[in-house]
Amino acid sequence: MKNALGFDPREIPWTLQHQDWPALPSASLNSERLKWVFQNPPDWTPELKSEPAMGQRSPQAAAVLMPIVMRGENGQNPHLLLTQRTQHLSSHPGQIAFPGGKVDPEDASAEHAALREAQEEVGLESEFVEILGQLPSYVTGTSFHITPVVALVSPHHTITPNANEVEFTFEVPLSFLMNPQNHRLHEWERGGVMRRWYSMPYPAETVAKGHTPSDYFIWGATAGMIRNFYRFLLAANSL
């Protein structure tokens, strides 16, 4: 699983952070609470804002949809929908990601771009999506300035992956991702540049059958945005 820098992120040593931050309870993750938090955002600072630059690419605006599928009775068991990118893509091939991509000149907003990309990549129709709001921009090492758009998704939606861009989709319980015990911090120095990123490996036996990796390795920008989402909701718990 080599990336653009020529290393396998799975092989880089990791640690857990030692803050006494809790796993977020289910009451913090239901639809009504999430709606309230975005309507009454806390005073907070994102932990991760940008990655060290890789090359001299011009900045490019992008947007991703963070789709929270409201599983379970009355949406009490929310899951986050993720994609596995195909290997032949020019940027971040083979990585786990949110549906999303560049903001086109025709897009009225980052939200419009995120919805359009979700429909193009996985066939998620906007009628099943309720936008909650945005998280702060995240800048990748490849100069994408990504706006994460958080949304609730009806469990009655259908998924039709675009085989040119998406190898497959899967869902991870939001409770797993909102538990800092599942957040691994990696540090790696190369050429005098220290790179730091989170990973959140999710056991393969708990997701779709028919795939062989030992886990689904959520890392890099995707994990960074998830980590910021955790910090956002954690800050809201004090309200």
Write the layout of secondary structure elements.
Elements: E1 14-15, H1 31-39, E2 60-71, E3 77-85, E4 96-97, E5 100-102, H2 110-122, E6 129-134, E7 138-139, E8 144-153, E9 166-173, H3 174-177, E10 184-190, E11 193-199, E12 202-203, E13 215-216, H4 220-236
Parallel strand pairs: 2-8
Antiparallel strand pairs: 1-10, 2-3, 2-5, 3-4, 3-9, 6-8, 7-8, 10-11, 12-13
Q: What would the principal axes of the Cα set say about the shape?
A: globular
Distance between the termini: 41 Å
Put simply, the count of helices is: 4
Low-confidence stretches: none
Query: What fraction strand?
Result: 25-35%
| H-E order | EHEEEEHEEEEHEEEEH
Based on the coordinates given, report the CATH architecture. Alpha-Beta Complex
What's the CATH superfamily, by name? Answer: Nucleoside Triphosphate Pyrophosphohydrolase
Quick one: how many beta strands? 13
Number of domains: 1
CATH class: Alpha Beta
Question: What Rg, in angstroms, do the CA atoms define?
Answer: 17 Å
CATH topology, by name, is Nucleoside Triphosphate Pyrophosphohydrolase
Q: What structural class should be given to the helix and strand makeup?
A: alpha+beta
Q: What portion of residues is helical?
A: 10-25%
Q: What is the average per-residue confidence, as pLDDT, rounded to a whole number? A: 90
